[in-house]
From TrEMBL:
Pfam families xref list: Glyco_hydro_28 (PF00295)
Subcellular localization: Secreted, Cell wall
GO-annotated molecular function: lyase activity; polygalacturonase activity
Organism name: Actinidia rufa
Protein name: Pectin lyase-like superfamily protein
Amino acid sequence: MEFRFPRTCTLFSSVSLYFLLLPFHSFSQISLPPSPAPEAAGLGPLAVFSVLSFGAVGDGVTDDTPALKMAWDTACQAESATLLIPHRYSFMIQSAIFAGPSTNEVCILLSLFIVEKIDGTLMPPDGPDSWPKSNNRRQWLVFYRVNGMSMQGGGLIDGRGEKWWNLPCKPHKGVNGTTLPGPCDSPVAIRFFMSSNLTVQGLKIKNSPQFHFRFDGCRDVHIDSLYIKAPSQSPNTDGIHIENTNNVKIYNSVVSNGDDCVSIGAGCYNVDIRNITCGPSHGISIGSLGIRNTRACVSNITVSDAVVKNSDNGVRIKTWQGGSGSVSKVTFNNIRMENVKNPIIIDQYYCLTKGCPNQTSSLHISDILYANIKGTYDIRSRPLHLACSDTVPCTNLTFSEVELLPAKGNFLLDPFCWNAYGDLRTLTIPPVSCLSEGIPQSIPENYVDQC
Ligand SMILES: *[C@@H]1O[C@H](CO)[C@@H](O)[C@H](O)[C@H]1NC(C)=O
Ligand SMILES: *[C@@H]1O[C@H](CO)[C@@H](O)[C@H](O)[C@H]1NC(C)=O
Ligand SMILES: *[C@@H]1O[C@H](CO)[C@@H](O)[C@H](O)[C@H]1NC(C)=O
Ligand SMILES: *[C@@H]1O[C@H](CO)[C@@H](O)[C@H](O)[C@H]1NC(C)=O
Ligand SMILES: *[C@@H]1O[C@H](CO)[C@@H](O)[C@H](O)[C@H]1NC(C)=O
Ligand SMILES: *[C@@H]1O[C@H](CO)[C@@H](O)[C@H](O)[C@H]1NC(C)=O
């Protein structure tokens, strides 16, 4: 992976940077940096760096990447700064990496703030043919080694994903609904990499070519009030994906898209998800984990007060055959399901093709609490599907106040369990009589989950 370091950012430590999209008129008097600015949105006195001051045109066609980069680099030299992406303009930005200073004391605030009409917009080139050959096709805007950054406001990020979703390599997009070989990389819209103390708040983002947000190798991440939207048929458009990231709060957000609403990958712990509305989507997922015999550890995840509607899955844990590690201490509490195909699902046989052979090594899934999960399911599949590994059973699955009824029709498929151990704290609807009680005899004696 190649990373470009803005020289200013690596030369200066103790920098604070704010990245802001505000109604232009409230700042029209602001000229070149580093002029101290009025109090921006209650953020205290900040130097404001508008991309317009650096030559950005904002007509949606001109390449404004050099202006944005210059604004970023300049803002990096200030004690604290706001980078402003003003209202009523559309900025076309190429794939770019914004690196912070390498110290931990940096404070960066990216603030997108639009008052009424959503017409101030950040967007990438339109589709793979417009993407410069030399640019990375797997990511669009990357924030690398930034600490204390906040990206907030009500601006719109438009990922212009449609042409990427229609690449012949994407499911059913080839001739006559086939899937053809060929380059398939598509950019994640916003990626935070090896960063900490991040706040992302109030943004609207739509139609990412791939994941909308991806956090990897980050810690102390606070996400609030995001609005994420893509068509239900758009492939791999996960709303918020985290991996190797810990101390995460994801609150008060609304996601409708074509893949997981929130996905939690390997190496995540201490994650609190609250008041999320998902759907249509593929639900809230832990996984997939353990691909190509990798080790994955995920623990202390709480999902509460969520609504999942018209989705393929509700709350899901998915692992590939052959991995190692564990998923433990997960609570799904107070979740309303509306017309969801698999409201509660554990799938330790996750496979995207038909040919994933069973293997003996497996992740261990344990200490999972499903509490107060109520609502309706789509009768085309089972309300509960607990397919645990043959060799390493799931243990200590607890069900309390689970009540799932058919959304329509009354064809009832029974819950499915395979090697699933745990307890029913209350009676459930439908009854989960297939759950094995107590502790399995069959866990391999020397089994260590290595987490
Ligand atoms: C986190 O960032 C905020 C600014 O967004 C800053 O005020 C705060 O001091 C930072 N906290 C730590 C622990 O670095
Ligand atoms: C697509 O389907 C049509 C109608 O079935 C058929 O005539 C045509 O040959 C197919 N094209 C390819 C490339 O398979
Ligand atoms: C839940 O999130 C929605 C969407 O952001 C918000 O409108 C609502 O006020 C939140 N509810 C609570 C109790 O915070
Ligand atoms: C679990 O995560 C929460 C944050 O979501 C944190 O407050 C708590 O301390 C963590 N528990 C443990 C045992 O680390
Ligand atoms: C893998 O194991 C499961 C559970 O024992 C079984 O249902 C499935 O048929 C097996 N798959 C293959 C490909 O052998
Ligand atoms: C089983 O899981 C619950 C949470 O779901 C936890 O409180 C309890 O301590 C676990 N039991 C054991 C024996 O680990």
